[in-house]
Amino acid sequence: MVKKRELTNEEKLQIVKLYGEELRVSEIVKKTQFKRSTVVNVMKKWKITNTVRNKQRKGRPRCTTTREDRKIVQLATVDRRMTLCDLTKQARNNYQIDASSKTIKRRLHEVGLYGRRARKKPMLSRKNIAKRFQWAKEHETWTTKDWARVLWSDESKFCIFGNNGSRFIWRRPNEALKIQCVLPTVKHGGGTLF
Fold first, then answer.
1. pLDDT digits (tens, 9 = 90+) for 5-21
2. Which domain holds residue 77?
3. Domain tally for the chain?
């Protein structure tokens, strides 16, 4: 006899073919070397469903409900800079969601939220944003020749504001420059000399 394992669809079809040739179960067992119970079960399934394929299996049930999934996503989008460990703690403390950090991460990936390095952009007020936009509109039609007349000066780095390390945030692929997903910087980092 063959070791215990699941039969392939081809093996099951072989049993069905022999059954179609009106062989007895004992003869099919001798020819195929499969257990009698296996042959009987394959033939029974063929008679009822007219197929040898297995039904779709369900797998392990989810440990979070759809409502809890929404709460997890809400936590991550309210504070984009929260670490996975902190998200897990907040979910447990605030919403009694008993899920591992891997599960939390999977739920965020399901809706397209991934941990990414925050893009660094100058920290701007609404007034500065409006001025920069106006400047960009005025210089939109400049050619390479016009830009060649501009003097670009070298700058030294100062780092008092923030740090040099990268910061991870939760964002979707098209949210890289969204204000909540950007790490604000000030000119020269604010003051450390090097």
1. 788 888 888 888 888 88
2. 66-111
3. 3
